[in-house]
Design brief:
The complex is a heterodimer of chains A (125) and B (361).
Chain A: E1 7-8, E2 13-18, E3 21-26, H1 28-34, E4 37-41, E5 48-49, E6 54-60, E7 64-68, E8 73-78, H2 81-84, H3 88-91, E9 100-104, H4 116-124
Antiparallel strand pairs in A: 1-2, 2-3, 3-9, 4-6, 5-8, 6-7, 8-9
Chain B: E1 2-3, H1 7-12, E2 16-20, E3 23-28, H2 32-41, E4 44-47, E5 52-57, H3 61-68, E6 81-87, E7 93-103, E8 106-111, H4 116-125, E9 133-136, E10 141-147, H5 151-155, E11 171-176, E12 179-184, E13 193-199, H6 203-215, E14 220-221, H7 224-233, H8 267-276, E15 280-287, E16 298-301, E17 304-315, E18 320-328, E19 337-342, E20 345-352
Helix pairs in contact in B: 2-7
Classes of the chains: A alpha+beta (125), B alpha+beta (361).
Chain lengths: 125, 361
């Protein structure tokens, strides 16, 4: 499950760009790798991140994973629902399981992301 | 890499495999949480054929086991199983194990997979003065664990005798599905259930038959992931995490399997430690702050680094982040707080009594 309208990273984040804002989450592939997500450590609203910085951390029963910022920006919003229901990332990774909304710092960075078809090639390898 | 006789079955079920104690084992089939809950509420079937079976026989079998283990084997009747430990001279733990009394001069020891060779060597080295025969038959036996409140109901149709006659921590050698097996009412999950030991080549027959009946009862195949979260929630120690050859039985909170009225290897050291008083002890904890504690994370007591988390993780049934930890004796009391470093930040945790979960009997 890899929606066409999103951009992706090699570290399995997705990003939905709308104007100067971008919603970030992890892909279906990533949530299946992790399984049983029990904790999402969200960043503070207002935090500035550079492309590639750790944006937040996810714990599943068996392992821990870092989520990296696909692009540089400022955290505008975090998905507070995950504090009570971290399993939303498993159930609906592209929808209710979104992680944060970033304000884009450099829209030029978008061209460095993977298209849906490129990402599909990556995970199907 | 070693494989259990059910390796292909696990692959066919789509299990995610990991290497554990040199074996390729299923860590989960679908979801650790779902498998954990299935065991608490219905039933789960585990392949634990990696565990070791060592047989001790001979006229000195009892005398030898009394010397080499800390719990009392002497009072056991044929058909009983008992949790026990092999201590070192220093009172630390070579391994924890189940001792099965098969006959007056025949015992089966069920030991941890990672310790099979070490234990066998240990037993050999300490058996010189005894008339005993030791056999490591680990590779010849499968072991299945059918655990959960519906375990008896699921297994009953396969047996031609009343399973309720096998009480907790007892076993029967019986013919099931045309094969002689050991049916034992034991487990490592905190639930009712059975452990079945039989010839490795017959493992699939038993797995398939139990899966077939179990399916209608909501039973799930369960992997090592759920086995670990279930035993942790039920307050059971895991060898290698919660105890090893650097921790004594008393420190590991296992005094209940130390029988002072008999003589055994390591007793002197343990007695001395008991008289002088413990300096540290294994206790259970739950997180006060958010965050998932894992094995090996650094522990801070009164701001100073003090060891690491012994076992830790998410407990799916009680829905808490819990674990086991060694603390200085003055802090090893219910309600005391300490800190765990998770991703560079200190998170508060509080000592609570174990088990975290116990079934209503």
């Amino acid at each position: 499950m890899i929606p066409d309208e999103l951009y992706y990273t090699e570290s399995h984040e997705w990003i939905r760009v709308e104007g100067d804002k971008a919603t970030v989450g992890i892909t279906d592939f990533a949530q299946r790798e992790l399984q049983d997500i029990v904790y999402v450590e969200l960043p503070e609203v207002g935090k500035k991140v550079k492309k590639g910085d750790v944006l937040c951390s996810i714990d599943s029963v068996k392992s821990s994973a870092e989520v990296y910022a696909p692009i540089s920006g400022k955290v505008l919003q975090v998905n507070e629902a995950l504090n009570e229901q971290p399993e939303l990332v498993n159930k609906d990774s592209y929808g209710e399981g979104w992680l944060v909304v970033l304000k884009l710092e450099d829209p030029g960075e978008i061209s460095s992301l993977l298209s849906a078809s490129k990402y599909r090639e990556l995970v199907e390898e | 890499m070693k494989k259990t006789p059910l390796y292909e079955v696990h692959r066919a079920l789509g299990a995610r495999m990991i290497t554990f104690a040199g074996f390729e084992m299923p860590v989960m089939y679908s979801s650790i949480i779902e498998e954990h809950m299935a065991v608490r509420e219905r039933a789960g079937l585990f392949d634990v054929s990696h565990m070791g079976e060592i047989f001790v026989s001979g006229s000195d079998a009892l005398e030898f086991l009394q010397w080499i283990t800390s719990n009392d084997v002497g009072k056991m009747k044929v058909g009983r199983a008992k949790y026990n430990a092999l201590p070192t001279e220093r009172g630390t733990v070579v391994d924890d194990l189940l001792v099965y009394k098969m006959d007056d001069e025949l015992y089966m020891l069920v030991v941890n997979a990672a310790n099979i060779d070490k234990d066998f060597q240990w037993l050999m080295e300490h058996s010189n003065d005894f008339d005993v025969k030791l056999e490591n038959l680990s590779a010849e036996y499968f072991q299945l664990a059918l655990q959960g409140p519906l375990a008896q109901q699921i297994l009953q149709p396969l047996a031609d005798f009343e399973l309720s006659t096998i009480k907790y921590y007892r076993f029967k050698v019986a013919e099931v599905l045309g094969t002689e097996v050991i049916l034992s009412r034991t487990g490592y999950t905190g639930e009712d259930g059975f452990e079945i030991y039989g010839p490795a080549e017959e493992a699939k027959k038993f797995w398939d038959a139990i899966m077939e009946v179990g399916r209608d009862h909501g039973m799930l195949p369960a992997g090592l992931g759920a086995r670990d979260s279930l035993r942790l929630e039920a307050g059971m120690n895991l060898y290698g995490n919660d105890m090893d050859e650097t921790t004594t039985l008393l420190e590991a909170d296992l005094e209940w399997i130390v029988k002072w009225e008999k003589d055994f290897l390591g007793k002197e050291a343990l007695l001395k430690q008991k008289k002088e008083g413990l300096r540290r002890k294994l206790v259970g904890f739950e997180m006060v702050d958010r965050g998932l504690p894992r094995h090996g994370y650094k522990v801070y007591v009164d701001g100073k680094e003090y060891g690491v988390v012994a076992s830790g993780g998410y407990a799916p049934y009680i829905k808490k982040n819990i674990g086991n930890v060694y603390l200085p004796i003055e802090k090893a009391r219910e309600g005391e707080e300490f800190e765990i470093e998770i991703r560079g930040k200190l998170h508060r945790a509080r000592v609570v009594s174990r088990p975290f979960y116990s079934r209503i009997k």
